[in-house]
Design a protein that fits this description.
alpha/beta, eight-stranded mixed sheet
Length: about 325
């Protein structure tokens, strides 16, 4: 049974992963080699916890206990020597991941389960230098940002580990309120990112052709497909709409929609001009420096409200899975 957790990397994804486990009572060792990030991460997590408390997702009185369950480390070996489950959230570069997993294998107990938050690198490429026995206790556990709010967790079941071990990790994620998605094939992007990129490709294409303003294109998505997607999956939507209708519309539209195999040139031009979105102050929309904190908070609030509103669906979905 998994009782202790280790997280490698305290950046955007890593700190949210550590936070999620700590919220639900797990003692977490959080390793970060960058002293500046390590020195500020508890303040970042504390601010996020207080926002959750303000929205009555957690109790205000629980914030200090949650923070106390996260122990910070700048030494990897010390952080991992007694962990049952360890997940890394390092940059998406294969040489970094391979080296990190080698160090994890050396530092962790033999029975520890090792995981990666990647969605773009192959599991066995990362595990290439590890013993066969360790490969049986390795998996991809892909989170969505922000990790302490987004319910999804894509968990790999690629044939390298016994199902009993997979079920142990699945139950761990269920215990922290996540909705595990069992991924059977090691494909780039796994499931959610591939679906998201398909939507994004057409959205960027609509912007490029001048079909509507950025505001109206986002509005079309929010109050059209995304309104249903909040509680229904694409396959259920197709069933309710009628597969005959979907077949006809698909024949009519897919031939004229974007089928490019690379990132849209509009996005690349934005990047070349330093327009990276919120982080730079401008992307498709503008984000004045004196309003960034407020804009970020309002974005988080929308996700928190959606999380709270989804409780009924999550309960009914879990009951459907059990039946």
């Amino acid at each position: 049974m998994i009782r202790t957790v280790g997280v490698l990397g305290a950046g955007t994804m890593g700190h949210g992963i550590a936070e999620a486990f700590a919220i639900h009572g797990y003692p977490v060792n959080l390793y970060e080699p960058n002293s500046a990030i390590l020195g500020s991460v508890k303040d970042v997590i504390g601010d996020e916890l207080r926002l959750l408390a303000r929205e009555e997702v957690i109790e205000e009185s629980a914030v200090s206990d949650i923070l106390d369950r996260i122990t910070l480390f700048d030494n990897l070996e010390d952080a991992l020597r007694d962990r049952d489950y360890v997940i890394e959230a390092a940059p998406e570069r294969i040489e970094i991941k391979k080296e990190l997993f080698k160090r994890m294998d050396d530092a962790c107990p033999a029975e520890c389960i090792l995981a990666s938050n990647t969605s773009s690198l192959k599991l066995m490429d990362m595990a290439e230098d590890l013993p066969e026995e360790r490969k049986k206790r390795m998996m991809v556990c892909h989170w969505y940002n922000p990790g302490h709010i987004m319910p999804i967790a894509e968990l790999s079941f690629f044939g390298n580990m016994p199902e009993s071990l997979y079920n142990e990790v699945r139950d761990l994620y269920r215990s922290i309120g996540k909705q595990p998605v069992k991924v059977l094939k090691d494909i780039p992007g796994l499931l959610a990112n591939r679906i998201q990129q398909a939507v994004a490709r057409e959205v960027f294409s609509l912007i490029e052709m001048g079909a509507a303003s950025p505001e109206d294109i986002d509005k079309a998505l929010i109050f059209g497909p995304a309104f249903r997607y909040a509680t229904s999956g694409q396959l259920e939507i197709a069933d309710f709409g009628g597969l005959d209708i979907w077949a006809v519309v698909g024949d009519n539209l897919l031939a004229v929609m974007d089928n490019s195999r690379r990132a849209n040139q509009l996005i690349k031009r934005q990047v070349e001009e330093g327009k990276l979105g919120l982080k730079s102050g401008e992307g498709f929309f503008t984000y004045p420096e004196d309003r960034k904190a407020d804009i970020r908070e309002r974005y988080m609030l929308r996700l928190i409200h959606q999380l709270k509103a989804s409780d009924y669906y999550v309960t009914s979905h879990n009951e459907k899975e059990k039946s």
